[in-house]
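CORE FACILITY INTAKE
Project code: CF-77B
Contact: R.S. (postdoc)
Sample description: multi-component assembly, three entities in total
Requested service: structural model of the whole complex
Turnaround: standard
Below are the sequence entries exactly as provided by the requester. Do not edit them.
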Amino acid sequence: MSKEEKPESMSLYPLGTAAAPEPELLCIFGTGDLGRSLGQRLLQSGYKVVYGSRRPHSCGPVPQGAQVMSHTAAAQSASVVFICIQREHYGFLEQLAPQLKRKVLVDVSNNLRKNLYPEANAEYLQRLTPEAYVVKAFNTLSAWALQNGPSDSNRQVYLCGNSTEAKEAVTEIATRLGFSVQDRGSLSAARELEDFPLQLFPLWRLPLRLAFGLTAFFFFYLLTRDVIYTYATQKKDISFRIMVSLANKVFPIVSLIMLALCYLPGVIAAVFQLYRGTKYRRFPDWLDRWMLCRKQLGLLALAFAFLHVLYTLIIPIRYYVRYKIAASTIAKMKENQTSELDTTIAWRSDSYYSMGILGFGLYVLLGITSLPSVSNALSWREFSFIQSKLGYLTLFFCTFHTYLYGWDMFLRSSYYKWYTPPGYMLSLLVPSVVLVLKLLLLLPCVDRSLTRIRQGWERTEPQDDSQKSLIT
Amino acid sequence: MSKEEKPESMSLYPLGTAAAPEPELLCIFGTGDLGRSLGQRLLQSGYKVVYGSRRPHSCGPVPQGAQVMSHTAAAQSASVVFICIQREHYGFLEQLAPQLKRKVLVDVSNNLRKNLYPEANAEYLQRLTPEAYVVKAFNTLSAWALQNGPSDSNRQVYLCGNSTEAKEAVTEIATRLGFSVQDRGSLSAARELEDFPLQLFPLWRLPLRLAFGLTAFFFFYLLTRDVIYTYATQKKDISFRIMVSLANKVFPIVSLIMLALCYLPGVIAAVFQLYRGTKYRRFPDWLDRWMLCRKQLGLLALAFAFLHVLYTLIIPIRYYVRYKIAASTIAKMKENQTSELDTTIAWRSDSYYSMGILGFGLYVLLGITSLPSVSNALSWREFSFIQSKLGYLTLFFCTFHTYLYGWDMFLRSSYYKWYTPPGYMLSLLVPSVVLVLKLLLLLPCVDRSLTRIRQGWERTEPQDDSQKSLIT
Amino acid sequence: MSKEEKPESMSLYPLGTAAAPEPELLCIFGTGDLGRSLGQRLLQSGYKVVYGSRRPHSCGPVPQGAQVMSHTAAAQSASVVFICIQREHYGFLEQLAPQLKRKVLVDVSNNLRKNLYPEANAEYLQRLTPEAYVVKAFNTLSAWALQNGPSDSNRQVYLCGNSTEAKEAVTEIATRLGFSVQDRGSLSAARELEDFPLQLFPLWRLPLRLAFGLTAFFFFYLLTRDVIYTYATQKKDISFRIMVSLANKVFPIVSLIMLALCYLPGVIAAVFQLYRGTKYRRFPDWLDRWMLCRKQLGLLALAFAFLHVLYTLIIPIRYYVRYKIAASTIAKMKENQTSELDTTIAWRSDSYYSMGILGFGLYVLLGITSLPSVSNALSWREFSFIQSKLGYLTLFFCTFHTYLYGWDMFLRSSYYKWYTPPGYMLSLLVPSVVLVLKLLLLLPCVDRSLTRIRQGWERTEPQDDSQKSLIT
């Protein structure tokens, strides 16, 4: 640094002193992972850090540049104290209450599972130290994110607390660490914040259960129709087909149904709105829940479609398929018959694959635009164009692909083993319904009513009966 | 909360009162989607919300915890009023102007299409209520993003307005809701902000048109050469080949051309700079526009390459291909000839596939690094390394893949049906030019000049003529 | 702001004046790319911009709306000066020092490579202008990001400087441009900030070297075993197999080993912790470094797996494979033997493919959740669930896939050409070790100890010997 060499300018201009601004001192209780990560980060951002420890001389390692003191001394030295210890060890803080009086206590703790304690950790801390200003913050970040800063990981810090000044102090620190802060209100929100890091895919539960249920159902349905039926009627063991052939029937069926289930609630909602003539009445709860997990439904459907694609593409390298093809070539050779190329079959087979590929391509596009960073870069209109227009096109391609697969199969009674329809027929039910309903909604007269309802803020008047009569 | 029970400590320590800080009151006009979503979010973030409605007792549902009043009463109760109604209904605000005097009016409205009105909604609002401080904000967010907060969706809020204080007040609210604010200046920017949510892939238009044009051209070109030629000369209907064989010729051709078009403007720009001996003169407009949509060109090219890969991989399961293979095996068998394995063909065929796979792999890598979140995590040098160095490598692999496909086809006259060259030859034109130009630019002497021009801030001097002579 | 100065008009219409608030004036030195991009952005955000140039009348183009002055005049007109010139041309600033006294100088410069100069550019600038307040900022952004704003590119601006006030002024500007600011402390951090844009995948180096090393080793190992061995013993040239067959052996082997190397350090760390009975002692440096690049290892492994999948899927369209299949069909035909379908082989082959597909599917899922925007949207627990639980499942599927590939190959001596084991056996070593160790760690007694160590903040006591004895 150059300024040390120019002592004269120092008296005139505050720069000389500004060269080494006295960094703010922060205190951390707890030298665990979290405490150390946080301390390291604070030191990097130019703060001075003091650790409070029960045994200052034999505590775990602390980041270079940080001091270790007794809890009492550490608490007295700083105005902000980060509590990075586990709730079970909060007890001693009650005795420290006098030292913590009017200090900002930042509760960073998390629990191992939900509802472990009757009150949130931060509320418990506030009860122990009633005269301190407790702020719940930073708990939703991993120690990793704390240590490495926000550039690669979540930059959002949630905080709550009863004292606005205390929250502002913590906001300032978080902002300086590079995080962006979202205030969640008073300390009573602490429980919600403490539950957040414990949640495990809450929105994925329903779609996952549905996917498992459908997979299990179709697996046993097709197992019965294919493997068990063959064994029962022809005493032939074709159980090896479970691994690929059966899987490659179950996956596309589940995928198509789930894709259709993505778009069904939207259609149902439109019907509700048309029927009621307003968009201001709440949808039933089940419809709301369903609509909230559409993205998850769609992504699971995409995963199943991805597996279907891979299972289809490995078909020609399977031992069984190679065996069959060789056997059929030999058989043809022996019979000495020259079968003609059937152009209709060629058209059908190629269209079938083409529809599948285009459908899958659009599917992947939908998946990519669901990535948070991509959907953020899209304007609202762009996002709805892709997710709605292209979404229905995807559904159409995939449904058409399945119809082409079936072709005239539904006419031949031999396919109705044990009076059950083939799996693909069952899979066509929901998508066909969705597409037909969507087509009806696109009829000019219906579409006009619907658009007016969706734009119209004032369509709650009783004279709207005329509207309802359009569709009832 | 435990502190309410300890009233004695209240006088000493301000915590008791801080426990229930009086939340700020905000007013929302309009109980539509936007109004409700915004209100819900504001309530969650600890604000008090009052709705203004024409008929306070029979308006649509409002979020729990919010009050509904007449417009006048609501406007008087708060200093910030969110206008969540459609522009057509702004009229009544003129009568409310006295109540809205010196209030901050946040115009959240959007229009259904661009240029619907001569002035921006926010400017119209300002004209109706000249004594209010109008701020345009939040309109670029969807109701969904407003309701669910910024964690999963766009966190950027654009605002503009003439009063700095008013903008600061709105900034504070937006920040508390977790958004980050970008000030776009005075209210005259409102039109731009109102157009933003209406835009539909403006940067994608040119590349999409190009892709459609190229696809259409090559489709008809190849249709003529393959299907119509065969029908005209041999009276054989091979139209079923449209679905897969033809598509799988059109897609890779368009993909390769568009990938080359991604890198052509960079090469042209370098030639311009070399010729002019400076980088400070603007490029022609067409080159600027072209360079701006390179990312979109590349992503479309990747989409076509993806389809090409899928179309290629399903080849062996096509009915037509299986028929052909069986027929050829039977023919070989009958002729009783044992053809030897041709090592050259094996080398060529395997190299062809290998180049294609490596090219596609790099292609996908380029696509992944185009994702906003990935490119953000890269330093500038890393990004340009991938997009430039790896980009040219991709182009080289894909071009080489196409040359291997052609092999000695260009020598045989039978491939020039109706005197037209095969499609793959046309596709090789642009990439070959780009690669040759790039190689020339990489020659040490040219590269040195170019690097100096790109670094040199001062190469505008007239004595730079020596430089120009290098390449002219 | 204008309102303070016009108290009278406030009661009437303050808006007319507020409509044109006097924008702040900023000065930029340098009219190069960076200077122009920055100026354009500042103008867009409502600042007035003045450029300082040596030759104000013949300098390069500046954005519309900006003025050009001499350096002296420009410096005097504004309180913040952006230095957008290259370090080599800083010299003249020493003479400008009086004009720059007490100004905020924002050093935006970067160098062409690391360690080009003994001191950071910003420190050099501070030495030249000791009475100015130098702030290093914006240098980590590309000119592109500066010009187009933060919505599509990195929104993080790093800054450092000795004067807190100066940093606050720059923070305000950066925030108004839409960036979020991270303060990195005093000016001594400038070197770190200047090195940042020059870094080229520092975390990828070790994994990339490893990948290249493994690829080279296995390539030559398999080249020797397959091609050279065949040539040496049978005088048959099968070198064409290098392009696909050999590549498709090398890629999965390297992929599996690297995937296992992703999970090995975690297992080793657990063993360390169990042995030491604490988690508070630092791991050895090599383990720390290893653990830091696990993500990169995994992504490279995924890239190799992706290539393996593509190489596998093109197998049936290869000339060599078609030739072989036709030859084998003809041979079977001639021998007139009807081989039976071997159900065991069918089971094994199908399971082999199925495991591979499921493993690859999970692999892709792991890759997707590594995308910054996706991992940000996950809670800590969700992320560790996917990366750990699903990661081990992926490793298991892929290892099992490889075991199924090998099947009983290890029993047949003909596979041990020149006494070397087949490549797939070598690839199974590391994953098998990792899976066995992981299984041991999952044994209830070991798992309980480990969980306690990882939760227990206080397990450093000497009485923990009992703990250690559990596993030693």
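Facility notes:
- The longest strand of chain A covers residues 48-53.
- Residues 205-234 of chain A form the longest helix (30 residues).
Invoice: internal transfer
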